[in-house]
Amino acid sequence: MEKRIENFKDLKVWQKSMDLVVLIYEFCADLPKEEKYGIISQKTRAAVSIVANIAEGHSRKTIGQFKLFLFYSSGSASEVETLALICQRLNYGNSEKIKQIISEVNQIQRMLTNLKKSLNNKL
Predict the structure, then answer these.
(1) Which option is the CATH number for 9-120: 1.20.1440.60, 3.40.50.2000, 3.30.450.40, 3.40.50.10300?
(2) Count of CB atoms within 10 A of residue 10's CB?
């Protein structure tokens, strides 16, 4: 029998997304200060949006609403990846951290996709 997840904090994708937020903040601390209102602001907001939408969606009353918020999280994950690629092209930050960010985002995207599929089976 499948265990029902009562709290969003128990979701592995939420936990992994929280780790990504920390990684993004650490990465952004080394970016040029003139990017404070550009890439830094956009990248940190997008990373926080991933995890916040997972939490908010889980707290909604229906599977359909949860899935909608997972789609929002997925969009924010794509935004984080795009911003990492922009940093890579501009030679901003540590290139190994950029690769790590992209790898983490790709894992989160797969986890979100799998979670959405599992919710489809419950409809």
Answers:
(1) 1.20.1440.60
(2) 12
Nearest CA-CA partner of 97 in 36, 27, 20:
27
Would you give the DSSP letter of residue 37? I
Sequence-distant (≥ 6) Cβ neighbours of residue 66 within 8 angstroms: 57, 58, 60, 119
40: three-class secondary structure by DSSP = helix
Cα angle 91, 73, 106; round to 5: 50
Q: pLDDT, tens digit, for every residue of 64-82?
A: 999 999 999 999 999 999 9
Q: Taking the model in full, what pTM does it have?
A: 0.92
**Nearest CA-CA partner of 71 in 8, 63, 100:** 63
